[in-house]
């Protein structure tokens, strides 16, 4: 089955700096890669996703890149703000109607003001 | 508000109790999931109800029993739990296309369960 590895497990950055979180996946059939943000006391919420037919996607300060050959994808947050502090999860979906998302272990991002 | 509602938000139960967690989705999705989130562990998929089929993680103990009476409602029945079952239990829903492509999962806010 699919296996998703996520690094680092914790990340601290100064406000205004960039943050990068990386994930690798094992199954080349995976074609959908979402990123979720989980704030304290809440469930994970989708912040950006990418499908395997594109290499990069941007949404304001957030971008995701995908390298299908190397089977890795990354989340980039620029000009970080204290409200970006949360746990971020990557996930991968296999091309099978009965296979749900497989999540990474999460990265706790702390943005220091 | 994500369109997925979980109740209760918090639950404390003894090891001999029987309780149920409820999840309701208002998004018209055809798949619903139960996840367990423990401290310092990844989201652990427990059960999936997808297109009226149930898929389960074989490592989930039988003291957890899911029920999905229709595509909008999902329950997790709990009995004789152990303290290590204390965790955040998250419900999610998604739309699975006939072509086999999953869409994003929408999560509820979770039920914080404490077993004493």
Sheet with the most strands, sense and barrel status of chain B: 7 strands, mixed
Share of residues in helices of chain B: under 10%
Note the run of SSEs of chain B as H and E: EEEEEEEEEEE
Unreliable residue stretches of chain B: none
Q: Note the overall shape of chain A.
A: globular
The parts of chain A where pLDDT drops under 50 for at least 5 residues are none
The rough form of chain B would be described as globular
**Euclidean distance between termini CA atoms of chain A:** 41 Å
Radius of gyration of chain B: 14 Å
Beta strand count of chain A:
11
Q: End-to-end span of chain B in angstroms?
A: 31 Å
Enumerate how many helices of chain A there are, as a single number: 0
The assigned structural class of chain A equals: mainly beta
Give a written overview of the molecule.
The complex is a heterodimer of chains A (113) and B (116). Chain A is built from no helices and 11 strands. Chain A is mainly β and 113 residues long. The N and C termini of chain A lie far apart (41 Å). Chain B is mostly beta strands and 116 residues long. Chain B is built from no helices and 11 strands. In chain B, the strands form 2 sheets. In chain B, strands 2, 4, 5, 6, 9, 10 and 11 form a 7-stranded mixed β-sheet that branches. In chain B, strands 1-3-8-7 form a 4-stranded antiparallel β-sheet, with no helix packed on it. The model of chain B has no long low-confidence stretch (mean pLDDT 88). The interface between A and B is medium-sized, with 26 and 31 residues.
Which descriptors apply to this entry?
heterodimer; A: 113 residues; six-stranded mixed beta sheet; B: 116 residues; seven-stranded mixed beta sheet; four-stranded antiparallel beta sheet
Quick description:
The complex is a heterodimer of chains A (113) and B (116). Chain A has no helices and eleven strands.
SSE topology sketch:
The complex is a heterodimer of chains A (113) and B (116).
Chain A: E1 4-7, E2 10-14, E3 19-25, E4 32-38, E5 45-51, E6 56-59, E7 62-67, E8 72-77, E9 86-92, E10 102-103, E11 107-112
Parallel strand pairs in A: 2-11
Antiparallel strand pairs in A: 1-3, 3-8, 4-5, 4-9, 6-7, 7-8, 9-10, 9-11
Chain B: E1 4-7, E2 10-13, E3 18-25, E4 31-37, E5 44-50, E6 53-56, E7 64-70, E8 73-79, E9 87-94, E10 106-107, E11 111-115
């Amino acid at each position: 089955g699919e296996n998703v590895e996520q690094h680092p497990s914790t990340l601290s950055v100064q406000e205004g700096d960039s943050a990068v979180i990386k994930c690798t996946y094992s199954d080349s059939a995976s074609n959908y890669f979402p990123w979720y943000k989980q704030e304290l006391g809440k469930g994970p919420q989708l912040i950006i996703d990418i499908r395997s037919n594109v290499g990069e996607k941007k949404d304001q300060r957030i971008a995701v890149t995908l390298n299908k050959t190397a089977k890795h994808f990354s989340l980039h947050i620029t000009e970080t703000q204290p409200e970006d502090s949360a746990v971020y999860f990557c996930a991968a979906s296999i091309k099978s109607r009965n296979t749900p998302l497989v999540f990474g272990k999460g990265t706790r991002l702390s943005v220091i003001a | 508000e994500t369109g997925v509602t979980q109740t209760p938000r918090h639950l404390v139960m003894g090891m001999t109790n029987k309780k149920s967690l409820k999840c309701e989705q208002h998004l018209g999705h055809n798949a619903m999931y139960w996840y367990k989130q423990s401290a310092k562990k990844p989201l652990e998929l427990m059960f999936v109800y997808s297109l009226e089929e149930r898929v389960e993680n074989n490592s989930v103990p039988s003291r957890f029993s899911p029920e999905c009476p229709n595509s909008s409602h999902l329950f997790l029945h709990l009995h004789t739990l152990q303290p290590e079952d204390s965790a955040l239990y998250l419900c999610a829903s998604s739309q699975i296309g006939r072509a086999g492509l999953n869409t994003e999962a929408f999560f509820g806010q979770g039920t914080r369960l404490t077993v004493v």
